[in-house]
Amino acid sequence: MEGRRTSDIDEIERFAVEHQVQIVVDAGFLEDRILIANLSFESLNIPKDRRIEYRRQLVEQIRAIPGVTSAAHTRLTPLSGSGWNQTIYIDGKKKGGSSLDQVTPGYFATLGTRLVAGRDFDNHDVAGGVQVAIVNEAFAKKYFDGANPLGKRFGFEGDKGEVPPVFEIVGVVKNTKYYELREDFKPIAFFPDTQDPRPNQYANVVIRADIPLSALIAAVKRSVAQVNPDIDVDFHPFKTQILNGLLRERLMATLSGFFGALAAVLAVIGLYGVISYMVARRTN
Predict the structure, then answer these.
(1) Domain ranges in the chain?
(2) What is the pTM of this model?
(3) What is the CA radius of gyration of the chain?
(4) Model confidence at 158, in pLDDT bands (50, 70, 90)?
């Protein structure tokens, strides 16, 4: 499976070079020199109360690899096509929707997303403490009229309609794309992974490094195996994920053009048949 995965990556990168594919849309983050490692420790049956700490140790282990400049965990990677949305409440009143994500400290620095106000998450943001959040500029503009939202609070409705939890805004970051490159910037709120009440047994680690991709993958494999060799690991470059989305759009455009041309050909053939029939009748 890994050989096929590497082949797919090489093919996409070769396509980008041959066709000079360049990402010129301002997505709010950098795409070069970032590797995504999808880790699963589900087979280890880690107790729920230890999962956050176990995930933190995995990230720290990867961050310590020579050549790695930063690494962080995120529940959802940008432009993956997956999402998490909730209705936002302010002062107990329903306001509108927002996209959400859970990340660890260093996530914004890893992706090159600039913090424009406030602070990043840190080790003091723990379960049982003040629930905090970082929002993007679109969130601040939509729900606070562009005013400084630091210190303001918001909530969202729980799964069973319970009283909305309240989060204090401690930081504001630049706008970033969420689902795809073509979308407009939308409100996004980020929460610290350390305050997740229902941590799962997965880790999506975004890694920025100054070493070649093949060397980085090998180093991450060794590093994760030192923690536990039974942890499943899968890799794909962040730029490949973005190019996959662009290639899907290119394929859809090609298919649309093909079926449009086919419809035109069928219309011409039908018109030719009708005219031929009319000419034949008048000739008789």
Answers:
(1) 2-243
(2) 0.77
(3) 24
(4) low
pLDDT the model gives residue 93 = 87
- For residue 200, pLDDT over 90 is answered with yes
**Mean of pLDDT values over 252-268:** 64
